[in-house]
Write a structure and sequence with these properties.
alpha/beta, Rossmann fold, 7-stranded parallel β-sheet, globular
Amino acid sequence: MSPLSTPPQTAIVTGAAQGLGLCIAQALHAAGYRVAITDRDADAAHAAASALDASGASAAGLGLDVTRKPDFEAALAFVQQRWGGLQVAVNNAAVTLTTPVMEITPEEFDMVLRVNLRGTFLGCQVFGAALAQAGYGRMINVASLAGQNGGTASGAHYASSKSGILTLTKIFARELASRGVTVNAVAPGPMDLPSVHAAVPPQRLARLVEAIPVRKLGNPRFVAGLVVQLASPEADFATGAAWDINGGIFMR
């Protein structure tokens, strides 16, 4: 069975109007999936989807605030009504802040955890239930190297949220395994993305790259390709795992 079979499979990606999420949505679409691009910025989501398929036949943009469970339920209902079901869910939406640990306010800490960790939990819960009911599905959570080593340039709240995502991945993988649903995480290190260049000052970024064993930032298209692999029907024996793409910073 292939995503190019008839009818094609449907994927939904959160936080996909730009950055790594957009790379993932583009890769899934190129592999033959119908893709729902969701983002808190609904206009940007619509624009990104239109760039993939202006007709809307194989791509659609939706507003989705990952702090709101009803938004997940509405997005699920949309793809079920439009394309008849959901087979792949990618929980990617996140905020990346680099505030020094002693300067993080309780409010900022709570906001990052609410978006990154709670948002992933709600995606796993809502999309996971639908996939389990259908008896088939692939869910991929975007974690981070920061959740494994405490972070190289990110804030403590970001690293903590990504560590929690790694644990949630195991919990939902165990919960859904007998229902035909796999749940995996990808854990990228520093990527060559506009968000990374914007968050890390040039001199600090140069020092960061020098500390990476392969001496370069990661290629987001490779991460997106790995997500496509994990989304495939053939990936039925891979679940509960964190797939590391970090240039050798963290080895295990």
